[in-house]
């Protein structure tokens, strides 16, 4: 009897094993994997293209695929997009070549540029400038592997079209600078960032002479790494010399930038970085204990917890006596050397890379230059000819020439921008963006946080509030990192991205840099409204309704809160309660909430003031009751229903003093109930989120019963409570109750007078 039962079970088990094996084979089949990957990419791509407030599909703009320059010299720089070597698709028209850094006839220093006009969805009104860092690294790396219309990623056999090209936003100008970088010609003479900025502005003057149709465009300076030095100093130079350049500088964007001292951006956060990614570094416990001991001895281990505060508590000190590191405190290099032992392909630019090192057409695929093909793409004769570069110039991604060789010691003499020009640039720009990959070990994100918290701009030091976790939302991807935005500076941290954000997370790079207005938001009108969004709208409607229904003829001049409300109105700027062009729902929520914070702060302060007043009145009431009881006992006679035996209506002292005659016409204020009041929910001792405070309109009946806001009459007849948030309905209902109390009091008085 057992065998018939076992046979079906055996058959089922065999079928299950075969099915599992088939599923495993399907999961590991490279063709199946490729199909699934293509399907996933298509879903993401379709999601982005359907998103009318996204950064790929945009409403028809003023951008065109081609553009005409009237200066005949411009034709000398034209690049045919159908004949770029190894590129089997049309990249569109572009212009490239060399231009001098000044108008001097004998000028020998020239910078190489590659200019792309905007795509059909880009803006012709904007011009983005891009530079890589180094110092001395070519901006063609950015053009060919990060944010240009054509990209040749590491480990791939041929270039592909870049879906996240910044030409989807506007025109882009790539410049190899300073002198000595890439194809650029001449002897480097720059000694500091002031020299670099002056030379670049001189080049831009020559560029606009040839391409004069670009004059007057809105101008954005962008770059990465050592461009954290270049970009702020260039921007500051332009702001100080506005007449030298016929462009309207609007803002800056810098990725994983040099901002402060080496010890801050590399040494202090290094051990904490390893602990955060301990499974990636895979160090043994003995070595980790050694690192922690060194970090503690050098003052690194508790630096973050002690000094990285929001808002900061004052200037942040160095952990030792050096701006790089004290003897025996170079933990960054110790970690780097150990990481290379465990993972020979360890990449400081993106720590997740593993062996083998991928092939790179530009010759720099990881921590070190790694030439696996010769010549490099931009060192090929046919590429040089196509781009109008000098045939005799040897191209390197990061030059072996010291671009600051003319400076004493061969180093840039300028101080880090966080101590000098960056605050001024932020204050003068319409928008400043700093973005940082969290998988970058060259410059660590927590070091950038320290540098920013030690910087003062717009009369305040650092960010006043910490970064909002998972608040950087990428259209089509979801939460992709953290961000904070205060006083014209926006800081992003990008998950899974290394040093080159436009290369490792191009969707984050283009969205964070999208300064141009977007198209229609019609698609948003049919989307369900998130709960937090509804709460903000609800609170806003309550506030608007209250303002509309204020009593006609109310004299603001007698209102002690009128001036404050007027100032608040100016400060609020009357932010529109609708989505702005290019604004996501999350950004709208934050903008409206920020706009309402002064009102909510006033409500909290008013509640606290009322609580203090109520406590004082209750104290007076207790004293009055005690006095009334004593008087009643003294005057008590044989009649048990005399007026003295009746409850005594309590009147605030100010009302008693203002009473004339027998006080028959004096309003009687109802006694405020004891215990918890309505304003307890917004007490400063019990902090709540803004959304919790404004979640729903107040229950007028509950407010009336609790009677949280007391009325009292001053000598001048002014009614106490105008500063309090009381609607006209509440006020009318309180007046009805007051009239009832007055009527009852008069009846009792008449009863006593009649001797009944």
TrEMBL record:
Segments of skewed composition (Basic and acidic residues): 615-642
UniProt key word Ribonucleoprotein: no
Annotated family: Belongs to the peptidase S10 family.
Coiled coil: none
UniProt-listed SUPFAM superfamilies: alpha/beta-Hydrolases
Pfam family, one: Peptidase_S10
Protein name stated in the entry: Carboxypeptidase
Broad EC category: hydrolase
Annotated signal sequence range: 1-20
One example GO MF annotation: serine-type carboxypeptidase activity
Superkingdom field: Eukaryota
GO terms, biological process: proteolysis
Keywords, sorted A to Z: Carboxypeptidase, Glycoprotein, Hydrolase, Protease, Signal
Record InterPro entries: AB_hydrolase_fold, Peptidase_S10, Ser_caboxypep_ser_AS
Gene3D superfamilies: alpha/beta hydrolase
EC code: 3.4.16.-
Lineage per the UniProt record: Eukaryota, Fungi, Dikarya, Basidiomycota, Agaricomycotina
Region Disordered, annotated ranges: 544-589, 605-690
């Amino acid at each position: 009897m057992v065998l018939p039962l076992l046979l079906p079970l055996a058959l089922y088990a065999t079928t299950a094993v075969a099915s599992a094996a088939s599923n495993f084979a399907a999961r590991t089949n490279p063709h199946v994997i490729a199909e699934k990957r293509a399907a996933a990419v298509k879903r993401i791509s379709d999601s982005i293209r359907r998103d009318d407030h996204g950064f790929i599909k945009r409403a028809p703009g003023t951008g065109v695929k081609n553009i005409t320059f009237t200066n005949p010299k411009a034709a000398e720089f034209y690049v045919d997009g159908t004949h770029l070597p190894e590129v089997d698709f049309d990249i569109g028209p572009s212009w490239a070549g060399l231009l001098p850094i000044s108008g001097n006839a004998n000028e020998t220093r020239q910078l190489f540029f590659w200019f792309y006009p905007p795509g059909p969805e880009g803006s012709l009104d904007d011009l983005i400038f891009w530079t890589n860092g180094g110092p001395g690294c070519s901006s063609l790396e950015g053009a060919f592997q990060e944010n240009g219309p054509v990209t040749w990623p590491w480990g791939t056999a041929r270039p592909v079209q870049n879906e996240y090209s910044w030409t989807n936003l506007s025109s882009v100008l790539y410049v190899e600078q300073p002198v000595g970088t890439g194809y650029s010609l001449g002897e480097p003479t720059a000694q500091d960032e002031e020299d670099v900025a002056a030379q670049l502005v001189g080049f831009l003057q020559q560029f606009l002479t040839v391409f004069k149709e670009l004059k007057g465009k809105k101008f954005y300076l962008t770059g990465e790494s050592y461009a954290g030095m270049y970009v702020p100093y260039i921007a500051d130079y332009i702001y100080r010399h506005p007449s030298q350049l016929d462009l309207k500088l609007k803002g800056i964007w810098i990725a994983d930038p040099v901002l402060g001292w080496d010890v801050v951006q590399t040494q202090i956060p290094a051990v904490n970085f390893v602990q955060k990614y301990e499974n990636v570094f895979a160090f043994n416990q003995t070595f980790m204990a050694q690192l922690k001991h060194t970090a503690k001895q050098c003052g690194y281990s508790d630096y973050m917890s002690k000094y990285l505060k929001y808002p900061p508590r004052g200037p942040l000190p160095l952990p030792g006596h050096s701006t790089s590191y004290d003897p025996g405190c170079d933990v960054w290099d110790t970690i780097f050397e150990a990481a290379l032992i465990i993972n020979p392909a360890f990449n400081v630019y993106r720590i997740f890379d593993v062996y083998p090192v991928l092939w790179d057409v530009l010759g720099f695929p990881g921590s070190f230059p790694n030439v696996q093909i010769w010549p490099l793409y931009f060192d090929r004769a046919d590429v040089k000819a196509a781009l109008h570069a000098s045939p005799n110039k040897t191209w390197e991604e990061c030059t072996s020439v010291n671009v600051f060789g003319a400076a004493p010691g061969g180093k840039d003499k300028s101080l880090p921008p966080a101590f000098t020009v960056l605050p001024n640039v932020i204050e003068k720009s319409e928008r400043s963006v700093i973005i940082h990959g969290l998988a970058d070990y060259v410059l660590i994100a927590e070091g950038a946080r320290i540098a920013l918290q030690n910087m003062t701009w717009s009369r305040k030091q650092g960010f006043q509030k910490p970064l909002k976790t998972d608040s950087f939302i990428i259209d089509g991807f979801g939460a992709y990192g953290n961000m904070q935005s205060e006083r014209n500076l926006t800081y992003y941290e990008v998950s899974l991205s290394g040093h080159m954000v436009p290369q490792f997370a191009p969707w984050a790079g283009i969205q964070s840099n999208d300064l141009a207005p977007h198209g229609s938001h019609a698609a948003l009108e049919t989307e369900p409204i998130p709960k937090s969004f509804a709460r903000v709208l609800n609170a806003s409607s309550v506030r608007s309704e209250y303002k509309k229904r204020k009593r006609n003829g109310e004299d603001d001049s007698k209102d002690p809160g009128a001036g404050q409300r007027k100032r608040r109105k100016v400060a609020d700027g009357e932010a529109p309660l609708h989505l702005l062009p290019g604004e996501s729902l999350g950004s709208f929520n934050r903008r409206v909430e920020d706009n309402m914070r002064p009102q909510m702060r006033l409500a909290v302060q008013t509640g606290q003031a009322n609580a203090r007043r109520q406590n004082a009145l209750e104290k007076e009431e207790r004293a009055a009751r005690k006095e009334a009881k004593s008087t009643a006992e003294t005057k008590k006679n044989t009649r048990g229903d005399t007026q003295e035996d009746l409850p005594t209506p309590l009147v605030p002292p100010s009302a008693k003093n203002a009473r004339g005659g027998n006080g028959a016409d004096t309003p009687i204020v109802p006694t405020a109930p004891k215990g918890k009041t309505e304003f307890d929910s917004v007490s400063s001792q019990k902090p709540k989120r803004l959304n919790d405070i404004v979640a729903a309109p107040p229950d007028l009946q509950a407010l009336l019963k609790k009677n949280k806001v007391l009325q009292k009459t001053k000598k001048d007849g002014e009614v106490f409570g105008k500063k309090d948030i009381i609607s006209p309905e509440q006020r009318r209902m309180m007046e009805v109750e007051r009239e009832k109390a007055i009527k009852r009091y008069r009846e009792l008085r008449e009863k006593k007078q009649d001797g009944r």
